[in-house]
Amino acid sequence: MAVEIVYRSSRDPEQLFMDKAEADRHDKMLELAETLGEVLQQAVPELGEKLAEEVSIYMARHRDLFAKAFKSNPDVLSSLAEDNAEA
Amino acid sequence: MAVEIVYRSSRDPEQLFMDKAEADRHDKMLELAETLGEVLQQAVPELGEKLAEEVSIYMARHRDLFAKAFKSNPDVLSSLAEDNAEA
């Protein structure tokens, strides 16, 4: 037995990480998802909290692809569409 | 009376533009919204077509801000949240 360091995001205290960089990534993903969720729910109130959160977490998990799609190239999202179809 | 040139996106034939660059921007916005809508609806089927489209058009209209938010800085979206609150 020994004491060990684990890391977590205060936004999601149940999820523990052995690796600080992973905890950081998780925290940043949740931060983006939170902000997205608020903006989308305000813009489209019919979404409701749950759907706004689901959509936001999905996009935040794939933020690099969405960044590219918004910046210039929507086609990069086709790789996601294929993943979804397989899932 | 005279014949004049107007421009439109084939994705939205009813909307006519006097300026080709504006028609281009509108077409690119709709292209992004269409791709986003498909991906989001696949990822979160409960969204349904109408909500997926509304969310996607909203984000596509503000694509520059969302590009920045996804790339690095979610805080840029706070200016949108304020606009929504005023609207």
From TrEMBL, chains A, B:
It comes from the Bacteria. InterPro entries: Uncharacterised_YebG, YebG-like_sf. It comes from Halopseudomonas sabulinigri. The lineage of its organism: Bacteria, Pseudomonadati, Pseudomonadota, Gammaproteobacteria, Pseudomonadales. This is YebG family protein. Pfam families: YebG. Gene3D superfamilies: PSPTO_1197 like.
